[in-house]
Predict the structure.
Amino acid sequence: MTIVKPVNRLRPLLTVVGVGLALLPAARAHHSQSEFDLRSKLEVEGIVTKLEWKSPHARLYVDVKNDKGEVVNWNFELPSPNTLMRRGWKRDALQPGDRVKVGASPARNFPAIGIATSVHDGDDKALFTGTTPIYEPETAND
Amino acid sequence: MSVVSRSAKAPEYRFDNVRLLRAALAAFVLVVGPALASAQWLDYRTPGVPRVAGGAPDLKAPAPRTADGKPDFSGMWFANVPAKDYCKEAECIQEERMAREQINLGIKLDGGLPYTEWSKEQMVARRANGGREDPHTYCKPPNFPRAWTLPQYIKIVQTPSLMVLLHEFNAAYREVFLDGRPLLEDPNPTWNGYSTAHWDGDTLVIETNGIRDDMWLDIQGSPVTESARVTERLTRVSFGLMQIEIAVNDPKAYTRPWSVTIEMAVQVDTTMLEEICLDDEQDVRLYR
């Protein structure tokens, strides 16, 4: 059964993040990631429709059924292909039809887009995680 | 001039299971020989690397030298930050490796970077805006000195009269002339400016001017401007480690000259992998 549910448990790192400062996550990315709500976590299960193997971010597209039973195609941002290759991934690491469970933080202003923080296969084996944890600039000079 | 020094400790070579597997695969390929072509050069053994028993790179070996006796900086480099196993804390595989200076180049500097009133306003506004004005977000080129801290590999190709720096991000390049030419007096500003270098003992001193007026030094948007003179002092402490003192004299953006020291770790038995940002950039639209 496919689910979309919020995950209350935040990564331990998130809990130490101070309040009131602009979030500038350490981006293994070409951007600051502030377009994502990194404090919010969701988990979905679904069927891979495509692994887009392009820079600056590989993307995993997954068909997910929502609470109304409608299928929504999610777009999950992954690290760049060169980073993934250095972790042992290949462009055919996931195939259309593969069942996956994806942990992610959602885009702030767009539905069905997220930045992936974990990917598990149908046997619940961890395939990928590792977008960057939130990283507070310690020497905010103001 | 305030200098932040970090330890000169050589990076540790993480001989984890993946490495072992890769080493085994590499050995297999070497044994089987040219009849078996590798699918990629990710694990191709770099020639000329000092090694310890067992084949791992000897990162504490002395820095190599060129035929004319100068330190040789040639090779692939990445910020000297360890790859941490993040899975102990969360359901993930590996924490990202990245230089803390990527966020704030002055992160280790007492009191931070000495912003002028104008540049502090710039930085604070850019940071509050979540980086949505960052040139890097829009796939603009990796400008030095910021480029040292970005999370891609840099390859240095050194000849007696020219050093070339290749950057994975956008497959970019930078030239550093070692032929004794003077800095330009009225340079046409560019992303990387114009660089000429000389030797101070075993340290290569790169002087740069002609940087554009609207460049960023880090994710939080510390400015560097056309008035800047940047001096990078490169020292290859050992085979595995390079220290770079980055000194910035930019009276428009900073109230006094300042410098920070960053460290780069050599990367061997692998290859450069291009990251062409404009290929599939999809994040800018999300800032709306």
Observations:
- The radius of gyration of chain B is 20 Å.
- DSSP finds two helices and eleven strands in chain B.
- Residues 1-15, 28-36, 85-95 of chain B have pLDDT under 50 and may be disordered.
